TrEMBL record:
Methyltransferase listed as a keyword: yes
Keywords, ordered alphabetically: Methyltransferase, Transferase
SUPFAM superfamilies linked: S-adenosyl-L-methionine-dependent methyltransferases
Protein's UniProt keywords contain Coiled coil: no
A single MF term (Gene Ontology): methyltransferase activity
Location of the Methyltransferase domain: 33-125
Top-level lineage group: Bacteria
Database matches in InterPro entries: Methyltransf_25, SAM-dependent_MTases_sf
Entry's Gene Ontology BP terms: methylation
Pfam families: Methyltransf_25 (PF13649)
Name of the protein in its database record: SAM-dependent methyltransferase
Signal peptide stretch: none
Length: 199
């Protein structure tokens, strides 16, 4: 599906970064960022322009190709990795930040990824995400028709325990990101920190 969606010349979700990421980017710590389900590169390229060292993972070859073109056009360096996120190893306490922007995974895989996020963040590291909430199924402005890929603020907090949430909100907002994410939408937004290891 994603290779088909990303095969055209236009960027399916545009080339501008996600609004929530832009609004909360000052919450990110350190230099290293891992972006999950990056797609065509808009968020990774934005962070690289700000000076972050970005590694971006996606399962679509076409998405990675377009992400590389976007990075080259802007003149930034991003490490793009083509990988199946159901099998990709995030690592252990090695990332300053991990982001997941509209990463539509069904619950079993999402829970596994979220467990990996908790392991992979350094103590004090930041997880930043925006996703569609279950109510989005009634809006039809993005996110597909599978409610199992959407999650509530309560689910997000449960799946990412023991992270500490600095910001966690479920709301309706106008999302304008290319042709597939446009219009009023139900979303959940979060910024969480991995607790420091106590001596």
């Amino acid at each position: 599906m994603w290779d088909v969606r990303f095969a055209g010349p236009d960027y399916a979700y545009g080339t501008e970064p996600n609004d929530f990421l832009k609004a909360q980017v000052k919450q990110l710590k350190g230099k290293r960022v891992l972006s999950l389900a990056e797609g065509e590169g808009r968020n990774a390229v934005y962070l690289a322009k700000l000076g972050f060292e970005v590694t971006a993972v996606d399962g679509s070859v076409k998405g990675i190709e377009k992400a590389q073109k976007l990075a080259q056009a802007v003149g930034v360096k991003v490490q793009f990795i083509h990988a199946d996120l159901s099998k990709f190893e995030l690592g252990n306490q090695c990332w300053d930040n991990i982001i997941a922007i509209f990463a539509p995974f069904a619950r079993p895989l999402r829970e596994k990824l979220h467990q990996g996020v908790v392991r992979a963040l350094k103590p004090g590291g930041v997880f930043l995400t925006e996703a569609y909430a279950p109510e989005q199924i009634h809006f039809g402005t993005g996110g597909g028709s599978d409610v199992s890929t959407m999650l509530s603020a309560t689910q997000l907090a449960e799946e990412l325990s023991p992270l500490e949430w600095k910001h966690l909100q479920q709301l309706e907002r106008q999302v304008v990101e290319g042709q597939y994410h446009t219009g009023l939408a139900a979303v959940v937004q979060g910024v969480a920190i991995k607790p420091l290891i106590k001596p």
